[in-house]
Write a structure and sequence with these properties.
globular; Rossmann fold; 7-stranded mixed beta sheet; single chain; 7 strands; alpha/beta; tRNA binding
Length: about 190
């Protein structure tokens, strides 16, 4: 069976662990827990976990250079771009919402910009973990590098779980079915998609 490459975006190190920018890492940690496995450092400059269905990867190069490890792993495991799923934080999706899409621009997200450049294509699947816009005049770059707010943290485990559900749905059911199930859900609607 052809495997998937699931790449969670974030920055390595404990000082970044709770940042909004690390929503991709958080989702990959949940997927690893579901698989009953542990990440190990790989020579591709990523933490890696191989499962029967997917290769889970958390690049250790910091967000802006995520493309190098992604391309190396795609080549090493011979996984085509259409079987790559990138999980990332998204300013233009409200907090509590998840969106799945294929391709598109990077919308100023340096991790996506790096992956698109390294892969030579933007035609990979994305799980967009909504973090919403910064309050007031706060700079977007500062906002993504701050931890989730106290009020947000109470819902965060639920949202990370939902983000992992979106990834699994993409692998098992495809893009359209996943969009139909998850795009109608938001933070105020609990329970599994129908």
């Amino acid at each position: 069976m052809d495997r998937w490459l699931i790449v969670g975006l974030g920055n390595p190190g404990p000082e970044y662990a709770g940042n909004r920018h690390n929503a991709g890492f958080m989702t990959l940690d949940e997927l690893a827990a579901r698989a009953g496995g542990r990440f190990k450092v790989h020579r591709s400059r990523a933490e890696l976990l191989e499962t029967p269905k997917a290769v889970l990867a958390k690049p250790l190069t910091y967000m802006n250079l995520s493309g190098g490890p992604t391309k190396l792993l795609s080549d090493f495991y011979k996984i085509p771009v259409e079987r790559v799923i990138v999980v990332h934080d998204e300013l233009d999706v409200p907090y509590g919402a998840m969106r799945a899409k294929l391709g598109g621009g990077d919308n100023g997200h340096n991790g996506l910009k790096s992956i698109t450049k390294s892969m030579g294509s933007r035609d990979y699947l994305r799980v967009r973990f909504g973090i919403g816009r910064p309050p007031g005049r706060m700079d977007a770059a500062s906002f993504v590098l701050k931890d989730f707010a106290t009020a947000e943290r109470k819902d965060l485990p639920f949202l990370v779980d939902r983000s992992a559900d979106v990834v699994e749905s993409l692998m098992e059911r495809g893009l359209e079915a996943t969009q139909n199930s998850f795009h109608a859900l938001d933070l105020n609607i609990s329970g599994p998609p129908r």
